[in-house]
Write a structure and sequence with these properties.
Blueprint: E1 5-8, E2 11-14, H1 25-28, E3 32-40, E4 43-44, H2 47-60, H3 69-83, E5 89-96, E6 111-118, H4 124-128, E7 131-137, H5 151-162, E8 167-171, E9 176-180, E10 184-189, E11 192-195, H6 204-213, E12 218-221, E13 224-225, H7 226-230, E14 234-239, E15 243-250, E16 253-254, H8 262-275
Parallel strand pairs: 7-8, 7-15, 11-12
Antiparallel strand pairs: 1-2, 1-6, 3-4, 3-5, 5-6, 8-9, 9-13, 10-11, 10-14, 14-15, 15-16
Length: 280
């Protein structure tokens, strides 16, 4: 990745040379927000929706954006153009708390980082056979904000890897299944699609899937518990980097037949058709 170019606080530079101040509150206090998206046919998918979510995340932690959404959008397109990747790209937008004079008081000038890297392609078996996920007892602080505080997620992912799973689902103190470390969670009961709606980060891919599904299935947004898992016919997770990925086991519980079901396959096909023919 030595040839990649990133944007950091007003400058474009090689990724390997990019730095931020050690006095930035992102470093000292973990104060900042980010968003993540990918391209299809070289175009950022749902960029405005991701920027609006970035803005909401920043407002939720009282962090001012370093410019307008149009300004940030222009920087993103400029960064993509400077990289000219042959393959599809991931785009990570990070807004930092900025340099603090006392190590805790936010600066009047927040920082901005835009990273462009090649998109990771997951093995075809993840979509053809599905994946295993586990559950962990975690309640995210300010769940509607996509903050840079990812310690709980990193620990949960380590637990998932140790259990031979691809993802971990957060469960709150009331036994409600919320979301994954980087994903949203869905269950099918026959032709009913059910997904959590409270105390989660509203995923952009989640919104796309809900829109695709409403013309074919009954869509229900409500709390999910462990009891719901036992009766489910199909399950899947969604994320910008994973798209729509079937789930065959949650912990040691097999979901349905243990294979990607027809409804999930229909959602996968619909998402594929949309993203490979998207116009912006």
């Amino acid at each position: 990745m030595t040839d990649l170019i990133c944007y950091a606080n007003g400058r474009f530079m090689p990724l390997e040379e990019a730095t931020i101040s050690v006095r930035d509150l992102a470093v000292l206090r973990g104060y900042g927000v980010f968003d993540f998206l990918r391209t299809y046919d070289g175009k950022p998918f749902k960029l405005r929706e991701h920027l609006l979510r970035l803005e909401k995340s920043a407002k939720a932690i009282w962090l001012d954006l370093p410019g307008t959404l149009d300004d940030i959008e222009s920087i993103i397109y400029d960064t993509l153009q400077r990289n000219s990747l042959q393959e599809e790209a991931n785009v990570r937008i990070v807004v930092t708390g900025g340099v603090s004079s006392d190590g805790i008081t936010p600066s009047e000038e927040s920082g901005l980082i835009v990273l462009v890297t090649p998109t990771r392609i997951y093995p075809a078996t993840c979509y053809q056979q599905g994946i295993k996920v586990i559950t962990v007892e975690v309640e995210r602080y300010i769940p509607m904000a996509k903050t840079i505080n990812y310690i709980p997620a990193i620990l949960a992912q380590k637990q998932a890897k140790a259990a031979g799973a691809h993802e971990a689902l957060y469960v709150d103190r009331h036994g409600r299944i919320l979301e994954g470390t980087t994903t949203n969670f869905f269950l099918f009961y026959g032709n009913k699609l059910v997904t959590p709606t409270n105390n989660i980060l509203p995923g952009i891919t989640r919104d796309v899937v809900l829109e695709l599904a409403q013309n074919h299935f009954a869509v229900i947004e409500r709390d999910l518990t462990f009891d719901d898992l036992a009766n489910a016919d199909e399950a899947f997770i969604t994320a910008s980097n994973k798209e729509v990925m079937p789930v065959h086991h949650v912990n040691d519980l097999q979901i349905g037949s243990g294979k990607p079901g027809p409804n999930t396959q229909q959602i996968i096909a619909g998402f594929y058709n949309l993203t490979r023919n998207q116009s912006g």
